[in-house]
Amino acid sequence: MKSYTAAEAARLLRVKSHVIRYWEREVPLIQPKKDYQGKRLYSDRGLQLLLRLKHLLHERHFTVEGAREQLYRELSGEGQDLHAQIMALRSQLMELYLIIREKNP
């Protein structure tokens, strides 16, 4: 399983590291593991959550609180209508695009 450092995650998401740290504080679903040096490492799932959160905040214009609630609804199975499923799929496709783009600049 691939792990992404905070710097890699910030570069893939095209946001600054402090933005990701803020999101971590505001959305407890995002819980990166830490290595022996205390550096944050994100799993694929963690990166997907960050991508979905960014989408909700930047493209759908949710507040942080609203985006947090939406993520909880999506993950708990509530509100899993067709639109939410499409948006989740779109988030996954964006992640793949970012990974491919990073490997082939």
**Strand ordering within the main sheet:** 1-3-2
CATH class category label: Mainly Alpha
The description of the largest β-sheet is: 3 strands, antiparallel
- % residues in beta strands: 5-15%
Q: Rounded to an integer, what's the Rg over CA atoms?
A: 14 Å
Kindly report how far apart the N and C termini lie. 23 Å
Poorly predicted residue ranges: none
Helix tally equals 5
Q: What is the element string, with H for helices and E for strands?
A: EHHEEHHH
- The tally of beta strands, per DSSP, is 3
Mean pLDDT value? 86
- In one word, what is the shape? globular
Class per helix and strand makeup: mainly alpha
Overall helicity: 55-70%
What is the name of the CATH topology? Multidrug-efflux Transporter Regulator, Chain: A, Domain 2
CATH architecture: Orthogonal Bundle
What number of structural domains do the residues give? 1
